[in-house]
Amino acid sequence: MPSGVLFVHTNFPAQFRDLAQTLLARGVTCYAIGGLGAPGLNNVRIGRYSLARGSTPDLFPLAIRAEADLIRGRGALRVALALKAEGVDPAVIVGHPGWGETVFLDEAFPAARRILYPEFFYRGRGLDIDFDSEFLPATDEAVLRGKSKNAVMALALTEADVIVCPTEFQASTLPAVYQPRIRIIHEGVDTEAIRPGPAEPFALDDGRVIQPGAPVITYINRELEPLRGLHILARALPHLLAEVPRAQVLIVGEQGERPYGGESPDGRSWREVCFAGLAIDEARVHFLGRLSHKRMLAALRLSTAHVYYTYPFVLSWSLAEAMASGCYVIGSDTPPVRDAIKDGVNGKLLPFFDVDALSAALIAACRDPAASAGLRTAARETAVAKFDRAKGRAAWLDLLAEQGLEIPPAA
């Protein structure tokens, strides 16, 4: 009889870590399929797929993503059949369809209920691609390439029993045919552990220390790219630094291999592109790279204002963590951010491209930190209400039970 859950994610456990650990603690057997670099999780039997081949040379450009997804899907099926030969027969498959691994799994486990977790359905127009003509213009090729990214994911979603999306905006990107099967469940952040607390001295790599009480602007962008508004922040900083001589800026993140918005056209890092030609006081703008989670939270507790900008795209965990930390969030007035921040209620929203408005808001925050106290409290309340991990966990368990998974009660 089918039992247990098969998780599918190229980087398993990724978003499924907490859910898998919760199920294991309840006595539910869990399995996983992931790529060769997937970290895996203790007590979860994981099968890692390899790619039988690379992309076809000179393939029609719009088919490159679909072919790559199908190659991954075929690899995942080989692993699934090997697991089946070992006796694995999951009652439910929980998978991320974005890289193709879930598309053929019904050939191995036809009776399993399928819950798929798409984070974003690309459009040629109206979302990220034509939002910023400076860095992601809607050329004919870009529009078609954006739409073609969905080919294999759309096939997988067609056969899903339930579709889970983390936010209302991200759910809205899916076509109407999928909407009746969507549930909104954010995986959440640990709002018990991530909470407002006293700021502590923050040591920089050069030996200097930022003391509590100094005006501090924080910004977190894993890939340091325009898609998260790095260029808008960069252009707002000269005025801020001139008007607030004590202000310090902490920028968390570094250029990755695959920025969401693609690489810069001339091969430079996006940091170089976004800060080129700007008069920045390098003694007060600190690029911290990728920090440990503990150190990142320490930076947030020091924050006078936290900047979170994004194109119409996936909402970052960092925003939920900043809100849970009680930060004063100054965000872009774009659909993903509006799912979390209401202007004047629990933060401040500004037009994405209005550099002067961002400068003015940062200056005002530094000159009168107490003015944002109510917004900080409301941000924390919103994080607990909308992005609490325990609530997301409970919603997932209810959904799995609805799909027929037997989940023993908590000990």
Features:
2 domains, 411 residues, alpha/beta, 13 helices, Rossmann fold, globular
Description:
It is a single chain. The chain has 411 residues and is an alpha/beta fold. It folds into two domains: 5-188 and 389-402, Rossmann fold (3-Layer(aba) Sandwich), CATH 3.40.50; 202-386, Glycogen Phosphorylase B (Rossmann fold). Helices cover 33% and strands 15% of the residues. The protein is built from 13 helices and 15 strands. The chain has helices at 17-25, 64-85, 140-148, 151-158, 168-172, 230-243, 270-275, 293-302, 317-324, 335-338, 355-367, 373-386, 389-402, and strands spanning 5-8, 30-35, 45-49, 92-95, 113-116, 162-165, 182-184, 202-203, 209-210, 216-220, 248-252, 285-289, 305-308, 329-332, 348-350. A seven-stranded parallel sheet has the order 3-2-1-4-5-6-7, with helices on both faces. A six-stranded parallel sheet has the order 12-11-10-13-14-15, with helices on both faces. The chain has a two-stranded antiparallel ribbon with strand order 8-9. Helix 6 packs across helix 11. The longest helix has 22 residues, at 64-85. The radius of gyration is 22 Å and the shape is globular. It starts with a strand and ends in a 9-residue tail after the last helix.
